[in-house]
């Protein structure tokens, strides 16, 4: 689905899209429709942003044309929509700085990798995600192997014992989603009340009755045991002080994510309460050729909705046309007239 760029130190493209959430993915599609090549970066190691990290199974009701669609389905559809234009995905690397050089922007990630582009579109949501990790001794040794903060392959958990810690949407979404895959799901929460959507809570309670999920409430995480990077037991502590061992293969802590503006704050952008100020007619920032869209962008009357971000993506890409193709007139065509194949053949010719 996503072509991930690896071991590439320099890439030249028409537009760099910072953020691989739904708005960033739709920007890659819009860029392709205008004949632009694109690279999409994200600090997370997978596409989808909040939809994938926090609400993969949560239904979304305000996407035009879909009475109901969950987060993962939306991301899969957006990636498929952009795929004819072959955007490059640079995932798991935070953009550290952007620097103007002649008529180009140099976008540098932490590894470092440098991307040279004529336009930059910042679609970073509310900034960089940082997982809230449980304060357990030795947890680092198990991370990315048997302690995971996100899920990209459900089959990894087939016939495995999985302990999920947390009581919000993400924890219960994944408990329900994995119940028919894992051999046993344990849900650890410090209270017997959950903060998830009522329907998800109902589904989980039904799975508890069917023996697919075992609730450990009111408990909290206490310790980890295992060999090398592989867990064998998670110790949980009841609120009365009693400690129990739970045999597991994986632990999934879902304690939310802290969201920080991060290096974006140092790029010389005009900010208002950690949001980037843009011209709503073009979505351009105070820096020429740099645009901001989605939740990170602000202007009078802004609505923080995914569908608003989709419209902003179209505005930003059309506004970037003169930056990428100076002096070349844009002959606007509807997608019903232009189609995808012609656009696909044009994509990347501006390198």
- Percent helix: 10-25%
What shape does the CA trace take?
elongated
CATH superfamily of the largest domain: FAD/NAD(P)-binding domain
Number of spatially distinct domains? 2
Structural class: alpha/beta
CATH topological fold name of the largest domain? FAD/NAD(P)-binding domain
Please, how many helices? 8
Task: Give the CATH level 1 class of the largest domain.
Answer: Alpha Beta
Q: Strand-and-helix sequence, N→C? A: EHEHEEHEEEEEEHEHEEEEEEEEEEHHH
**Strand tally, please?**
21
- Residue fraction in strands: 25-35%
User: Low-confidence segments, ≥5 residues, pLDDT <50?
Assistant: 1-7
Characterise the protein shown here.
It is a single chain. The chain is an alpha/beta fold. The protein folds into two domains: 10-130 and 258-346, FAD/NAD(P)-binding domain (3-Layer(bba) Sandwich), CATH 3.50.50; 134-254, FAD/NAD(P)-binding domain. Helix content is 23%, strand content 29%. The chain has helices at residues 22-33, 49-53, 71-82, 169-178, 198-209, 306-324, 335-338, 341-346; strands spanning 10-18, 38-42, 59-60, 69-70, 88-91, 95-101, 104-109, 114-122, 128-131, 161-165, 184-188, 213-216, 219-227, 230-238, 243-247, 250-253, 257-260, 271-272, 275-277, 290-292, 297-298. Strands 1, 2, 5, 6, 7, 8 and 20 form a seven-stranded mixed β-sheet that branches. Helix 1 (22-33) packs parallel to helix 3 (71-82), helix 1 (22-33) packs parallel to helix 6 (306-324) and helix 4 (169-178) crosses helix 5 (198-209). The longest helix has 19 residues, at 306-324. The two termini are 23 Å apart. The model is unreliable at 1-7 (pLDDT under 50).
């Amino acid at each position: 689905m996503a072509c991930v760029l690896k071991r590439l130190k320099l890439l030249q493209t028409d537009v760099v899209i910072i953020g691989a959430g739904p708005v960033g993915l739709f920007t890659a599609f819009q860029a392709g429709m205008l004949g632009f090549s694109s690279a999409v970066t994200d600090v997370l190691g997978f596409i989808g942003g909040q939809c994938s990290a926090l609400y993969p199974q949560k239904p979304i009701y305000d996407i035009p044309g879909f009475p109901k669609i969950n987060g993962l389905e939306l991301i899969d559809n957006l990636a498929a929509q952009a795929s004819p234009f072959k955007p490059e995905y640079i995932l798991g690397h935070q953009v550290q700085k952007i620097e103007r050089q002649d008529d180009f922007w140099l976008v540098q990630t932490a590894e470092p990798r440098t991307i040279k582009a004529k336009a930059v579109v910042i679609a970073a949501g509310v900034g960089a995600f940082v997982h809230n990790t449980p304060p357990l001794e030795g947890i680092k040794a198990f991370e990315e192997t048997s302690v995971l903060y996100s899920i990209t392959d459900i089959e990894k958990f087939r016939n495995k014992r999985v302990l999920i810690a947390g009581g919000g949407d993400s924890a219960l979404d994944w408990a329900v989603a994995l119940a028919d895959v894992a051999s046993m799901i344990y849900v650890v929460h410090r209270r017997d009340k959950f903060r998830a959507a009522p329907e998800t809570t109902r589904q989980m309670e039904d799975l508890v009755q069917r023996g697919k999920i075992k609730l450990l409430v009111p408990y909290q995480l206490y310790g980890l045991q295992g060999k090398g990077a592989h867990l064998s037991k998670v110790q949980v502590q009841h609120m009365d002080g009693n400690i129990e061992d739970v045999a597991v293969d994986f632990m999934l802590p879902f304690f939310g994510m802290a969201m920080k503006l991060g290096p974006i704050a140092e790029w010389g952008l005009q900010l208002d309460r950690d949001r980037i100020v843009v011209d709503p007619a073009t979505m351009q920032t105070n820096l020429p050729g740099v645009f901001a869209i989605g939740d990170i962008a602000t202007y009078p009357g802004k609505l923080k909705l995914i569908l608003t971000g989709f419209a902003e993506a179209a505005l930003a890409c059309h506004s970037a046309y003169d930056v990428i193709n100076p002096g070349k007139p844009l002959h606007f065509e509807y997608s019903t007239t232009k189609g995808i194949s012609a656009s696909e053949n044009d994509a990347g010719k501006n390198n």
